């Protein structure tokens, strides 16, 4: 039977497109099994450098969540949290500095980076993100400077209170900075990103918090605070694992899960899930029963694994998206009427 | 063909300058700001001559993409790209598995050709995604990239549900069909439509085109071509998922996937709010959890 045979009948009553999509022998609605155009891609993949953009998304999450956690610690954590808050303010500078540089590096006409500031558009997550990063930087930089002065010069000690106020916008923008990147990816036509907006967003948020709590745990001397941060990391990793499960379920429901079958999909499983979630949870679990002297090593190992996994999650998700966009059997399946909202 | 009476004004072999409102003579339509214009591509009369591809490249001064043979029927263009704004699809559907047989269908005898182009969506995902405002809606209701504003962020590329927009490796900016914005401004019909020898590509006011298309569809149905349908008019495939209608729409005779078109594309920006809300709620949850942990951990 040629292509016409299938269509001719389907068209008798209603438009071709509304005919039920062909299903696989095993009844699973995975992938498009109907005709493609010589197997050529139906969509174009995002022209991003996955390592550069993934690196930015990771730093944005780390900085944003660090600022959020650090400021909360400063407000409610008492005097013993002071050093933690100071480290958090330093991590908060990563996104505005290295992160911005990565973003500009990935532009195809970098010298025009400032055109991002021409407009503000609520329907463009990249525009939203630009302004979140601007707000964040406008809070994080002065706060770091004021705190530096207050900490190192006796004459400026009074600056501590105003510095907290200055940091407030960075704290709020930090929450946005941790998750807007997921909205940015979901608001595309790339099947594996577009098919699970909420799950991807929760996953990125949890990964951001886990990486920030881990980074803050690395240099923490107080065993009590380290335990608090370890608990927070562990909680965030559990949420991240739940969100990945929800994301996988959404991918299956929309028939695009095959996109995760390639190299990037394997990288996501091994590094984001294995190294970034399972390994640190196991290490943190081990730290509960380990002798006191070993705990710090286990905490630090868990923190490094979490941070590495968090970076790889962003890079691999970008790669899986590219795979889903370039494979027509996935993008044509995603664009079936059954998947309409 | 009935000629427009105004053709009598231009009888000289060499003209002093461009004709005023030339589109009235070539496409029977006046191009005026504030109205909606588009393309109706009737694939049943496409003969695959690729005049549209050539005219587009000539007028817009676009370089060639890959020079070579793809092995995919007569389609050696492959896909729309930063340098290719019209692309003729060739689908050979005689026989099973690519083997020719003698049992040809009487209509279009086993061949499908379709000149693909930017759809100029009513709610264009590329435009909505653009963070610089380089992509905009023109006074002719078409979607154009301002080359002096685009900074090549590339976000419009994955936003497009049709795989149209592309970043040029030559100049690092996003490029796609402009529906000949410059020609429209000068009262000229877009190059591809003007060059189309069978009127498979028709340029005009959107409402008029949609009416013409619906008449053509009825005519085809009456002649027994039951597979014919419109792609991109309100309520049809292609105009799904809050995209609104497509200003460049098509008459097709096989399912959209055959032409490499999505059956039910969606408006990408509708996913911004759900994603942001879920993410911010997550962050609020973690902030509260962190506060509780820190307070309970205090000495």
Report on this model:
The complex is a heterodimer of chains A (341) and B (299). Chain A is mostly helical and 341 residues long. Chain A folds into 2 domains: 47-187; 189-341. Chain A has helices spanning 3-11, 50-76, 82-91, 94-106, 125-152, 160-186, 191-194, 197-218, 223-253, 263-289, 292-326, 328-334. Chain A is built from 12 helices and no strands. Chain A is globular and about 75 Å long. In chain B, a hairpin with a 5-residue loop joins strand 4 and strand 5. Chain B has 2 domains: 18-266, 2-Layer Sandwich (Alpha-Beta Plaits), CATH 3.30.70; 269-299. Chain B is built from 8 helices and 10 strands. Chain B has 299 residues and is an alpha+beta fold.
Name some characteristics of this structure.
heterodimer; A: 341 residues; mainly alpha; 70% helix; 0% strand; B: 299 residues; alpha+beta; Alpha-Beta Plaits; two-stranded antiparallel ribbon; 8 helices; 10 strands; globular
Write the layout of secondary structure elements.
The complex is a heterodimer of chains A (341) and B (299).
Chain A lengths: L2 H9 L38 H27 L5 H10 L2 H13 L18 H28 L7 H27 L4 H4 L2 H22 L4 H31 L9 H27 L2 H35 L1 H7 L7
Chain B lengths: L21 H5 L10 E6 L8 H10 L25 E7 L18 E7 L7 H5 L5 E3 L5 E3 L10 H4 L6 E2 L6 E2 L5 H5 L5 H5 L5 E5 H17 L6 E3 L16 E5 L19 H25 L3
């Amino acid at each position: 039977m040629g292509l016409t045979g299938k269509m001719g009948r389907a068209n008798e009553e209603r438009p071709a497109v509304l005919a039920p999509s062909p299903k696989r022998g095993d009844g699973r609605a995975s992938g498009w099994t109907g005709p493609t155009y010589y197997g050529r891609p139906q969509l174009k993949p995002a022209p991003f450098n996955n390592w550069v953009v993934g690196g930015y998304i990771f730093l944005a999450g780390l900085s944003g969540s660090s600022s959020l956690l650090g400021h909360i610690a400063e407000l409610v954590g008492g005097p013993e949290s002071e050093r933690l808050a100071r480290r958090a303010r330093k991590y908060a500078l990563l996104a505005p500095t290295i992160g911005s540089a990565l973003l500009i590096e990935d532009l195809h006409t970098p010298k025009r980076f400032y055109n991002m500031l021409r407009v503000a558009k609520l329907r463009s997550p990249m525009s939203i993100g630009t302004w979140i990063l601007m707000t964040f930087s406008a809070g994080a930089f002065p706060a770091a400077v004021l705190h530096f002065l207050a900490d190192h010069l006796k004459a400026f000690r009074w600056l501590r209170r105003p510095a907290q106020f200055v940091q407030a916008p960075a704290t709020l923008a930090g929450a946005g900075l941790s998750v807007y990147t997921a909205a940015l990816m979901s608001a595309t036509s790339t099947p594996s990103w577009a098919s699970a907006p909420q799950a991807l967003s929760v996953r990125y948020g949890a990964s951001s918090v886990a990486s920030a709590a881990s980074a803050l745990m690395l240099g923490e001397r107080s065993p009590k605070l380290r335990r608090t941060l370890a608990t927070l990391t562990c909680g965030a990793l559990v949420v991240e694992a739940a969100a990945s499960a929800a994301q996988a379920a959404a991918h299956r429901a929309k028939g695009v899960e095959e996109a995760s079958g390639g190299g990037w999909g394997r990288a996501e499983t091994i590094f984001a899930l294995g190294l970034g979630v399972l390994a640190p949870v196991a290490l943190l679990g081990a730290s509960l029963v380990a002798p006191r002297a070993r705990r710090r090593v286990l905490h630090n190992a868990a923190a490094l694994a979490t941070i590495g996994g968090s970076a790889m999650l962003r890079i691999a998700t970008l790669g899986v998206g590219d795979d889903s966009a370039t494979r027509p059997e996935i993008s044509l399946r995603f664009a079936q009427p059954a998947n309409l909202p | 063909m009935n000629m427009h009476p105004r053709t009598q004004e231009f009888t000289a072999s060499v003209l002093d300058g461009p004709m005023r409102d030339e589109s009235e003579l070539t496409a029977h339509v006046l191009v005026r700001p504030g109205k909606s214009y588009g393309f109706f591509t009737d694939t049943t009369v496409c003969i695959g001559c690729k005049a549209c591809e050539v005219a587009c490249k000539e007028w817009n001064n676009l370089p060639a993409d890959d020079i070579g043979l793809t092995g995919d029927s007569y389609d050696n263009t492959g896909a729309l790209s930063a340098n290719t704004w019209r692309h003729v699809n060739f689908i050979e559907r005689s026989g099973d598995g690519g083997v020719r047989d003698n049992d040809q269908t009487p209509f279009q005898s086993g061949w499908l050709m379709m000149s693909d182009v930017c759809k100029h969506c009513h709610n264009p995902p590329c435009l909505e995604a653009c963070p610089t405002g380089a992509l905009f809606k023109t006074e002719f209701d078409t979607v154009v990239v301002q080359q002096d504003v685009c900074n090549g962020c590339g976000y419009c590329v994955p936003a497009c549900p049709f795989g149209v927009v592309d970043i040029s490796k030559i100049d690092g900016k996003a490029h796609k069909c402009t529906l000949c914005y410059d020609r429209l401004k000068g009262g000229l019909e877009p190059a591809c439509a003007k060059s189309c020898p069978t009127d498979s590509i028709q340029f005009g006011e959107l409402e008029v085109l949609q009416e013409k298309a619906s008449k053509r569809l009825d005519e085809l149905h009456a002649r027994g071509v039951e597979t014919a349908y419109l792609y991109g008019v309100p309520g049809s495939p292609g105009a799904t998922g809050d995209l609104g209608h497509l200003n460049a729409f098509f008459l097709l005779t096989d399912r959209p996937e055959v032409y490499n078109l999505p059956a039910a594309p969606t408006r990408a920006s509708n996913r911004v709010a759900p994603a942001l809300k879920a993410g911010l709620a997550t962050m609020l949850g973690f902030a509260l959890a962190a506060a509780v942990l820190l307070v309970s951990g205090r000495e």
